[in-house]
Amino acid sequence: MIKIIKKLLIGLLALGFVGAITLYAGLYSSLPQLTGTVYSGGVKQAVSLSRDSLGTAVITASNRNDAAYALGYAHGQDRFFQMDLLRRNAAGELAEIFGLAVIKLDERQRFHQFRQRAEMIVANMDVASKRLLQDYAAGVNDAQQAQHLRSFEYLLTQSKPEPWRSADSLLVIFSMYLDLQSGTIKRDLTLAHIERYFGADMLAFVNQNSRYQAAIDGSELATPEIAIPSLSLPTVAMAKVTPIAEPVEVGSNNWAVSGKVTQSGHGMLSDDMHLSFAVPIIWYRAQLNYQSATGEAVQVTGVSLPGAPAIVVGTNGHIAWGFTNAYIDTADWIALADDEATQVEKQQIKLPKGEREYALELSRFGPVRRIDDKAYALAWVAHQPYAVDMQLMQLETATDVSTGLEKAKHFGIPVQNLLIVDSQGDAAWQPTGAIPSRTALSDTAQHSDDYQAELWRQDETQIPRVHNPQSDRLWSANSRVMSASDHQRFGDGGYALGARAEQVRDNLLAHDSFDERLFFAMQFDNTAHFLTPWHEYLVSVLSSQPKVFSDDLQALAQWQQCACSDSVGYTLVRHFRDQMIDATFAPLEAGLNKQQLSLSAIKRNLETPMWQLLAKQPPQWLPQGYDSWAAFSLDAYRHSKQDLLAKYDSRNSGDLATLQWGKVNALKVQHPFSKQIPLLSHWLDMPEVAGFGDSYMPAVQRSSFGASQRFVVQPGREEQGIMAIPGGQSGHPLSDFYRAGFDEYGTHQPTPLLPGDSLATLEILPAAG
């Protein structure tokens, strides 16, 4: 029997070995061709596509259309599955690959009809834009057709890649709308129902202007103390404390200075866009070299978004540009009258086997959502024909800030804070992207009579800007950038609290002269100015029982006032704040949850009313079972600490050292498949890195969220520029470029912006005939 078992084990091991070799060989054969020569009818003249040690795609072409083809070819080789997910996400077509597990997500996305909108926009595009998208798509599809074997994602899901179409590039931009502006939609709906269920006084209380304000012109919004509204005792008693999800501030930091405060006299830009992390990371390094329509040589270096033919953030030697999410008000909900006419459109959502019917209710204002006994229609700028286009590429040929600002007035992208600098020393800020011209804005549901149909159909042309400010410094960090008077016109779409922007501003004002290294270092500022009042409050709470909390008080004394990797005190303060807010506002959260709504959309706004409650200590707001706010605060800390130890103290030692912030907030950049199949984690994920930053400081970093790129440049001095990215170029695990650059990112090392020496070159030649 033992011999038989031994033979079986040897046989199984042999089969496993053979299977592993076969799998490896198959995956290896699916690597794209990076050297040699290929022939294509998609290019008019010869094009070269080179890669350096980071996998940066360096494209040299005779014209922009051939460059678009080559960029599509590179994206198709390295990132096609990622591109596929982006277009499917926007169109609500993920269930075709992943089945019923994502059907609810598909239904939420189908609500916006982005597939139909993208196809309509392409049909009405100018000839030049349409041809550019066609050439880009041809490059993507030719790269896919050249593959000997489908990528492993399609093998695992038993699905097949569909050809890339021009409309798919617009769907990729629509996917960014969903990431960048869905919070605006949720915010207005949440505020409308706070008013409906808890009254106008409660709405005013939770939606106060932040005391953290850092507009470029120094203007401030009024911050009068709002009366604390009543909260019925039965409501408080019945509320169960559930975590209010912290909204991810999808956006960025960027700042710039004019040449008056740089040694070179050139303007300088820093830009780090904050997004959720996955493998592969969203951005793709590229340099395009081509001849403009007027015959001038163009070289633009930066990052592209796989699925689109543009350089999103970058420099062309004359100007450099970067973005942060602007968070102005771009959406309104309209409360429909009972007799408002609507119609239902039925669609079929494809599944791996079969289909599922989806019914979408539509009105003259937009798609309809029903909550409780009311119907609401969504008017959103993303639903307008001017929402997406290819005009961003015009920055590639701009030679100075003034020209760039004019070109940027009508970009079809989610509205952004554009910071732009040039080699002559100019620097400017301007909101750019799709902005509706409507002037009747509302934080809550509008009456249908207030809907301005004609103005919704027009892209706003009168937009503010700041060019060469007196301070020679510009900044934005997702809070209000524009003046208080302009704010009245453009509204609040869910601005960040403003603490991060204040810290960025103060860092700029603390220096008289700047270079690339200083700008890069400023991106890692993790000083905890925002949490300092919470630290002081927690120390006062625990000091009532110094013997019981001696270890805790010691950790708080050594907290270093930063989101540092070895700080235990920071972890304790951070989670105590969350627990206090969750428990205090549990009655509101419970009421909203009944309608599938949440305070999450406005959680950042609760900072001001929370401190007001701590100052006034109204008894009626105390949760049941507490006779004082001191007792409530002490118990909130106990619960917070208990939850932390349960999650991170695997040995149940009770040792606070297990709560170092670097462990609690460790950076984990994972492949979507490894989250579902943990055995794949070692093979697919990036190495785990100790956390060092947080949300309310320039060094933004959460477990799977943060600076998706760190960009610093003076146009004309690109050789000193920096571009660090938390992941490699290729989505293929066996590629040399799969993790290239991640170690430098994780250890805060500056990676060069400009490509290095070429390691591989593919020549793409026009097909004969």
Separate helix tally: 25
Give the strand order of the largest sheet, numbering strands 1, 2, ... along the chain: 1-24-2-3-6-7-8-9-15-16-18
Distance between the termini: 71 Å
Tell me the fraction of residues in β-strands, as a range. 15-25%
Helix content: 25-40%
Radius of gyration: 27 Å
Uncertain parts: 4-22
Number of separate strands: 24
**How does the overall form come out from the CA principal axes?**
globular
Largest sheet: 11 strands, mixed
Overall mean confidence score, pLDDT:
94
Provide the structure class: alpha+beta
Describe this entry's structure for a reader:
There is one protein chain. α2 (64-91) crosses α6, α8 crosses α9 (200-206) and α17 packs across α18 (568-584). The strands form four sheets. An eleven-stranded mixed beta sheet has the order 1-24-2-3-6-7-8-9-15-16-18, covered by helices on one side. 36% of the residues lie in helices and 17% in strands. The termini are far apart. β2 and β3 (57-60) form a beta hairpin. Among the domains are: 1-30; 532-561 and 564-664, no CATH class. The chain is globular and about 85 Å long. It is an alpha+beta fold.
List keywords for this structure.
alpha+beta; 25 helices; about 35% helix; 7-stranded antiparallel sheet; about 775 residues
SSE diagram, text form:
Blueprint: H1 2-29, E1 36-40, E2 47-51, E3 57-60, H2 64-91, H3 95-98, H4 103-110, H5 114-123, H6 127-145, H7 152-157, H8 166-198, H9 200-206, H10 233-238, E4 251-257, E5 268-276, E6 284-291, E7 297-304, E8 311-315, E9 319-325, E10 331-335, E11 343-350, E12 355-362, E13 368-371, E14 374-380, H11 401-407, E15 416-422, E16 427-432, E17 446-447, H12 453-456, E18 466-467, E19 473-476, H13 484-490, H14 499-509, H15 516-522, H16 532-542, H17 550-557, H18 568-584, H19 586-593, H20 607-616, H21 629-648, H22 661-664, H23 672-676, H24 681-684, E20 701-702, E21 705-707, E22 710-713, E23 722-724, H25 742-746, E24 760-766
Parallel strand pairs: 1-24, 3-6, 10-17
Antiparallel strand pairs: 2-3, 2-24, 4-5, 4-19, 5-21, 5-22, 6-7, 7-8, 8-9, 9-15, 10-14, 11-12, 13-14, 15-16, 16-18, 20-21, 22-23
